[in-house]
Amino acid sequence: MVYFGQTSCEQDTERYIDVVKYVFSCYKKEVPLVINTMGWVKGDGLLLLTDMIRLLSPTHVVQMDVYDWRAMAPLTPEKVRLTPGLYTKGKQPARRQQMELGAAEGWKAPEGEEDASAPQYKLLYVHPEFPRAGVAGEARVHSSVLRDMSILGYLGQLQPPELGSVLPLHSLVPYQVPFSAVALRVVHTDVAPTNIMYAVNASWVGLCRIPEEIRCQADGPVLLTQTPLCDCLGFGIVRGVEMEKKLYHVLTPVPPERLRLVNCLLLGNVAIPNCVLVSQEGLEGEIPYVTSDYNYSILGAGKLRKRKHFKRREHMFQCDYT
């Protein structure tokens, strides 16, 4: 698993390609592999999807449409062969037309140099015929809601199974991680070193393993200058930063034997659900991590964002990460 650190690859498509290559290189081809592509299929998203098909060379492509609304033409092998992607070129039909018929019949790519622009797969095109199937706004759950539910389910592993009530963040015992034991990197934006701790505190981080040895020459945190392409062993919340003792306080359900392998914390643009921070019971006075007295000019952090979309009644849920 690799932590991409963003909810969309639109701002960093090159890294997205590198991440896909890294993950796919670990596939042993001993069992079938099902790849669930993202829903960005317009503009550069469709071009990137074309690149993915060429890169991964699937045996089957399942394309699902909705009734009375066609997002894009069927992704047939011929269309993918001719259409240029975001980073790959399509095979021009004129190139073949210029060849004589006799030469074309005997033409074959050299061994080991197959034409990557001409993937061979079977297209399974699903187009429902019953009304209102998949119509946006009818039975659709927004990706932000699904993402929050996934994070809440993951945080539920922190809760003691014998307790009936939910313990808030400030009641859970974190791991103490020395500054010198892990390297830090903010994935989605540039943050000044003087502001890095503002960004890390109370943030969702990927617990990663980089092959390089962590070498700290100063008392401050170890900062990476480039985003590494590395394995992610799990996720956690930096509950606090203790500057005097040079410690991060990290909440995570990852078992200790795997935590010993972690030497890098990647901070991305994936936010902790607002209800986890706001709905902390048993507090008097100010709620930890929540304030209205904040300097919004600081890069790397920001105010809680309001969700503009409306949720259907069946999609409303209480914040309960048990």
Automatic annotation (TrEMBL):
<dbReference type="Pfam" id="PF16575">
    <property type="entry name" value="CLP1_P"/>
</dbReference>
<dbReference type="InterPro" id="IPR027417">
    <property type="entry name" value="P-loop_NTPase"/>
</dbReference>
<keyword id="KW-0698">rRNA processing</keyword>
<keyword id="KW-0808">Transferase</keyword>
<dbReference type="GO" id="GO:0000448">
    <property type="term" value="P:cleavage in ITS2 between 5.8S rRNA and LSU-rRNA of tricistronic rRNA transcript (SSU-rRNA, 5.8S rRNA, LSU-rRNA)"/>
</dbReference>
<dbReference type="Pfam" id="PF25467">
    <property type="entry name" value="NOL9_C"/>
</dbReference>
<feature type="domain" description="Clp1 P-loop">
    <location>
        <begin position="2"/>
        <end position="65"/>
    </location>
</feature>
<dbReference type="InterPro" id="IPR057570">
    <property type="entry name" value="NOL9_C"/>
</dbReference>
<keyword id="KW-0547">Nucleotide-binding</keyword>
<dbReference type="GO" id="GO:0005524">
    <property type="term" value="F:ATP binding"/>
</dbReference>
<dbReference type="InterPro" id="IPR045116">
    <property type="entry name" value="Clp1/Grc3"/>
</dbReference>
<keyword id="KW-0067">ATP-binding</keyword>
<dbReference type="GO" id="GO:0051731">
    <property type="term" value="F:polynucleotide 5'-hydroxyl-kinase activity"/>
</dbReference>
<feature type="domain" description="NOL9 C-terminal">
    <location>
        <begin position="172"/>
        <end position="273"/>
    </location>
</feature>
<dbReference type="InterPro" id="IPR032319">
    <property type="entry name" value="CLP1_P"/>
</dbReference>
<dbReference type="GO" id="GO:0005730">
    <property type="term" value="C:nucleolus"/>
</dbReference>
<comment type="similarity">
    <text>Belongs to the Clp1 family. NOL9/GRC3 subfamily.</text>
</comment>
<keyword id="KW-0418">Kinase</keyword>
<protein>
    <submittedName>
        <fullName>NOL9 kinase</fullName>
    </submittedName>
</protein>
<keyword id="KW-0539">Nucleus</keyword>
